[in-house]
Amino acid sequence: MTGAPAAAPAAEVSRAHRLAAGAREFLRFGIVGGSGVVVNLAVFYLANKGLEIGLGLHASDAVMQLGPTRFNVRWYHVLSTLAFLLANTWNYQLNRSWTFRGTVQRSWLRGFFPFLATGAVAFLVSLTCMTLLMNPTSPVALPAHIFDDSSGLRTKSLWAQAISTLIAMPVNYVINKLWTFGSAA
User: Fold this and answer.
1) Helix, strand, or coil (residue 73)
2) Confidence bin at 35 (pLDDT 50/70/90)
3) pLDDT at position 60 over 70
4) Contact indicator for 160, 134 with CB cutoff of 8 Å
5) Sign, Cα dihedral of 180, 85, 67, 134
């Protein structure tokens, strides 16, 4: 016996290579997503401060009633939508130029709309979560005695925005990997 290790079958090497490449891609997607969360929260925070200082309104104030129902669109819904749109565009560009740069890609607009649609599905989940976290009658409402809006770190709408954004992230990767940044065919 020579003691030399036996060569691994090509299928095992190929599979290990694909797993390592997928792990690197997922890590990059996570880094981009993390930067998108920062953009999302910064836009939400700044828009919320502008709303308070400029107009004297609060995030939980109603913007409009939804028809004859008892439900309202609130300012945090509007601010969250603005933050989503800007962070989604940020994430798309970074994912396109860094995370999935080795794949054949569609034109910017043809790739952006599937990314936006995927993000919109996740955003609806996020907005639902945020509404539940903000609604004082919800069983998962953030406690008012902790999140009393007395300081930046105790701002209920900011925490609801952060939590709901993080909840929607895992699905985003899978759908974007398969649809938005999948084969350009």
Assistant:
1) strand
2) very high
3) yes
4) yes
5) positive
